[in-house]
Design goal:
single chain; alpha+beta; FAD/NAD(P)-binding domain; Polyamine Oxidase, Chain A, domain 2; 5-stranded antiparallel sheet; 3-stranded antiparallel sheet; 5 helices
């Protein structure tokens, strides 16, 4: 997985949407013409024939369903006993005069450091920080790492004082990425089909990354398109 991720970075450029990662979903949504989207609609059951029951008691009947999450909660027979990597990402504000990263992601190889990797976001997307400031993100090595210790290690990496950073927010993510023993780059569309009505999508099917999530979703959509006229 390490080799895959760094190969990806080596053949292209990392980018951040101007208004955040939500822009990816917004872009997809903007291309939909005959679609109804229900927000905060918890699904409590899914039958193999595509019948969906929501928490409010209403029922949806679908010819095709793409299940884009861990399927075990709705289809116990598909329980893959997924385990997940935990991570903590911490954001700091600093002056725009701090060390420039030239758009690179930094790795911290020091044995006793609290930091796995770090990046300066405002160099990649200026809209992420107000004028005169920089925005830094750090992925910690341990779950629920202390931001004070992280600020100290980050400061020593880029040659400044810990006081040059203001802690903005910490995100403790219990299910960051699925642990995949044998990751693959891609899969045939037909491998996403579980029943004549239900298809799977998610990075756990291929490799633990945004690329894997998008690619699996694309393959599921292909499979739906290929079989829709058979229903």
């Amino acid at each position: 997985m390490f080799a895959f991720v760094f190969r990806t970075f080596s053949v292209g450029y990392a980018a951040l949407p101007k208004n955040g990662m939500q822009d990816l979903s917004n872009q997809l949504k903007s291309k939909l013409r005959e679609t109804s989207i229900r927000y905060n609609a918890q699904v409590v059951s899914l039958k193999q024939n595509g019948e969906i029951t929501l928490a409010n008691g209403s029922t949806i009947y679908a010819k095709k369903v793409i299940l884009a999450c861990d399927p075990s909660g709705l289809m116990p027979q598909l329980d893959q006993n997924l385990s997940y990597q935990k991570t903590t990402t911490i954001f700091f504000k600093g002056s725009d005069t701090l060390k420039r990263m030239k758009g690179l992601i930094g790795l911290d190889a020091r044995a006793e450091s609290t930091i796995n990797n770090y990046a300066r976001h405002d160099e990649v997307q200026p809209s992420t920080a107000p004028k005169g400031f920089s925005l830094w993100s750090v992925t910690a090595r341990r779950y629920e790492e202390d931001e004070t210790a992280v600020a100290k290690d980050l400061a020593s990496l880029i040659g400044c004082s810990p006081r040059d950073f203001t802690h903005l927010k910490s995100y403790h993510i219990g299910k960051a990425l699925p642990v995949i023993e044998s990751p693959v780059f891609d899969l045939p569309p037909e491998q996403t089909q579980m029943t004549s009505n239900i298809y799977l999508a998610g990075d756990y099917l291929v490799n633990a990354s945004i690329d894997g999530a998008l690619r699996s979703g694309y393959r599921a959509a292909e499979a739906v398109t290929e079989t829709l006229d058979l229903v």
